[in-house]
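User: Design a sequence. Structure:
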């Protein structure tokens, strides 16, 4: 199942910089592992914002929930999810 996910990150201004850097480092490691594994299909920065648009390819809504809540930055994110299905006019298959 494909999902379009928008994540807006809001780290508390009072968070110590070392803690923020460690969270970002562990988030990056996990995000890159999930991209290599194929579950995190696209990751795009929204220009000018500490936010991203991502496409996830996972087994189920429960799997998406488990993945998103495992992200180190999850407690500091606002997340919007749009489930995707095939458009009848699309010339691509869902693997493209
Ligand atoms: O920077 C972000 O958009 C938040 C998050 C998503 C992937 C990652 O490495 O950090």
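Assistant: Done.
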């Amino acid at each position: 199942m494909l999902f379009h996910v928008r994540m807006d990150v809001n780290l508390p201004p009072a968070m110590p910089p070392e803690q923020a850097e460690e969270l970002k480092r562990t988030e990056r490691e996990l995000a890159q592992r999930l991209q290599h594994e194929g579950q995190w299909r696209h990751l795009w920065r929204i220009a000018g914002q500490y936010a991203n648009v991502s496409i996830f390819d996972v087994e189920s809504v429960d799997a998406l929930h488990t993945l998103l809540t495992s992200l180190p930055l999850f407690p500091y994110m606002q997340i919007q999810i749009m489930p995707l299905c095939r458009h009848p006019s699309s010339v691509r298959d869902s693997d493209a």
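The pocket of MUC is lined by residues 7, 9, 27-28, 31, 43, 52, 73 (CB under 6 Å). Residues 2-84 form a domain with the Alpha-Beta Plaits fold (CATH 3.30.70.1060).
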